[in-house]
C-alpha cells in the first residue's frame, strides 16, 4: 500500500474534479487551457487603419536621405570611438565598508535574513480578492472618480459666536440695522453731552485781565546762614587778593591769574609760563585786573623757569594781601578752594579736596621757556586754562599752593589739577624780589625712569664732567634709588629730591651698580 504524495493536493470532495482556492472558488477557471504553453496571450485588438505617410519633400530627401553608394545604415569604414577610460579602483576604505564578507559573492543578505516564501494553494502571490482586483488585470479600463469633497463645518448663527478656543465673539455683520442704529445714537449722545458740559464749565470761568498794576510778589526775611570756613566765606576773604593777569603781544593775547603776596610793595606771584612770552619783547603789555574791575600795568620782577614761578609788580599801594599757609600742614582729603580766572572769567571759585601730595609733575609750556619738575599738590577742584598763577586755599583761607597745571585729555579740566606748594613758591618769590633770580641745587646727571619689575629708579644716562655726581664717583648705567632718606622711583622724583636741598648741601646717594647696592656722598652744585 503506497502512501500519498504530500506535495499533491488531497481530494476533500468526491464530487469535485479540480482544485479549489482558499476562498472556495473553482481553480479551474484560472487554469491554463489544454494544450497551451507559456504565458497568456493578450486579447486581440483591432487597430485603426493608419494612413501612409505623405511623400518626403525633395529637399528633405536630398538632405536626409541615404547616399546612393550606401546600401546599409552606415558605412563600415567610419572611425571607431575611443576606448572608455578605465576607472581607478575604489579606495581601500570603501572596499572595506561595502565588499562582501570572505567566502561570499554578490549582494549581502539582509540583516534579518531572506523572507520566507508565501505559499497558498495556488501560488505565492494569490489573494482571495483576485477576481475583483483591477491591478491584477492588465486589460482593466481606467476610470476617474469625482473630486475630493470635505464636509464644511456648520456655520454658527450670530451675532454672538464661539471661536475654536471657546471664546465668545460678536460678529458685526450679523447685527441688525436697528441695533446698529441704537449704538450709533448712543455714541453721538455721549459726545454731545460731554461737549455741552465742557462748554458750560468754560463759560462760567471768567477771564482775568493780563495786567495787574500794583502787584507785589512774596519774599522771605530769613537770612542765609554762612558758617565760618564755608566756601562762600573763604571766597569773600581771598578773592580780593587774587588778580587776573592779561598779557598782550601785538595782536595776540593770553590770560592767567596771580596772587598778591605783598600789598604795600605791589608784588604779585604768578606762573612763569603766564608772563614769559612778554619778557624782553618790545610793545608787549602786562596788565593786572583786580576784583573791583580796575587794572594797573605790571612789570616783571623776575622769572624762574626751573620752578615755573614769576613775580610781577604794580604801582598800586594798599592792595589786599593773601595769607600764605604751608603745604606741610595739608593732608589728603582736606577741602580746598581754587580761585582764579579760568577761560578769562575773572573771580571764578571752584572747590574740591586734596587728592594727593608730593606728586612729581614735569612742567613745560608751548611758547615758554618753562622746564621744571615740581612736587605738586594734586586736587580735584576743577582747574582750567587761565587758572594758572591763581590761589589754592585751604579751609582757613590760607594759600597752600599756586595753581599751575592740569591733567586733561581734551584740553579742559577733568578733575585733576596741580599746584606748586606755597613753601616752594614763597622761597622762590623771596629770591626773585631780592635779587631778580633764584638758585637751585644740581647733581649734574641726565637720567630716565627704569624698573626691574620689583624696584623703580632713575637710570644715569650721562654724567657732566666736574659735576657733583662726577666728584662723588657716580657712573653711567648706575640706578639711583634713594637720596638721603627719600626714595627715588623715577627721574622726576630724583629732580624733586635734589631740588629740595640748597647748593653746597651734602647728600647720600644709594645706587644699584652691577646688581649690588652702594652708597656715595655728593656735594650739590648750583644749577
Explain what the structure shows:
It is built from 8 helices and 22 strands. The chain is an alpha+beta fold. Among the domains are: 229-436, Thrombin, subunit H (Beta Barrel), CATH 2.40.10.120; 441-526, Pdz3 Domain, CATH 2.30.42.10. A 6-stranded antiparallel β-barrel has the order 3-4-5-8-7-6. Strands 9-10-11-14-13-12 form a 6-stranded antiparallel barrel. The chain is elongated, with a radius of gyration of 58 Å.
The number of helical elements comes to: 8
| CATH topology description of the domain at 229-436 | Thrombin, subunit H
Helix share bin? 10-25%
- Percentage of residues in strands: 25-35%
The unreliable regions are 1-18
| Apparent shape | elongated
Strand order of the largest sheet: 3-4-5-8-7-6
Outline the fold blueprint:
Blueprint: H1 58-64, H2 92-98, E1 160-162, E2 168-170, H3 177-204, H4 231-238, E3 242-249, E4 252-262, E5 267-271, H5 272-275, E6 285-289, E7 295-304, E8 309-314, E9 335-340, E10 348-363, E11 372-379, E12 391-393, E13 399-406, E14 417-421, H6 422-435, E15 441-442, E16 445-451, E17 456-463, H7 468-472, E18 479-483, E19 486-487, H8 491-499, E20 506-513, E21 516-523, E22 525-526
List keywords for this structure.
alpha+beta; six-stranded antiparallel beta barrel; 8 helices; serine-type endopeptidase activity; transmembrane helix
At a glance:
The protein is an alpha+beta fold and 527 residues long. 16% of the residues lie in helices and 26% in strands.
